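User: Before I run my own analysis I want an independent prediction to cross-check against. Here's the chain; please return only the structure tokens and, at the end, one sentence I can use as a sanity check.
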Amino acid sequence: MNVRVIKRRAKTLYTRSRIPGVDWSVNQYVGCSFACPYCYAKNVVRENEAEWGSWVIVKVNAPELARKRVSGTVVMSTVSDPYQPIEAELKLTRSVLRFMDKRNELSILTKSPLVTRDIDLFRLFDSIEVGLTVNSFEGREKSLLEPLTPVMKVRINALQELHEVGIRTYAFVSPIIPGVTDVSAIVEETRDFVDHYFFEVLNLRKAGGAFESILRENFPESHRILTRAELFKTFVNNLVAEIRSLGVRAEGIETHFHGWGFVGL
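Assistant: Structure tokens:
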């Protein structure tokens, strides 16, 4: 897919977050060329009627805006990926990190092993954690659900590399799709170098009609579980028991059957 780069000047970089437990979000990019068809962000940010993944907004003045001092938790990023392919050339994320107040309490989330490039900057922060999204999609599943992202193995290798140099790490196990995402396998492969986990069941409501059609056609049982209340409840209860049995550090599971929900562990 050809990606149109749109350069803009922003008024601010730090935005008050609506995510529970997160004070500020930072998005030096808006839009994401990984173009995951299930991504909720395509319903949050739009560029006219252009196809999700076909454009990326670059906040060219983000590094100077990053100097602002804020208190509380800062998450990078919520409507983009800070290490999507364009970052390898532009190095905008790297510049933002350079100028960001190192006293900020920073959490970074990405699907890209490019994140390890900036280990030297991560070490300068008083408090930082870096997470990789992992979901066990491989082969046909990946081609349908997440065709343009780096494969799981390189993401897991990135987590291990970050851990080995002393960076606090987390695995964001998302989206969890019944019968597709192997949560136990993910945990067993990563537990030696992940400090804690976040778990999230697929947000089918925000994924949109096109993705729901993909899921219904190719994974009909998964679709049934995610759209029928009793089946969904049973699935989540079983998932809670499974995660508890694994004995890892995690607060709970995000769910989205009737809007945002959280099931504690």
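Sanity check: The chain has one domain: 4-264.
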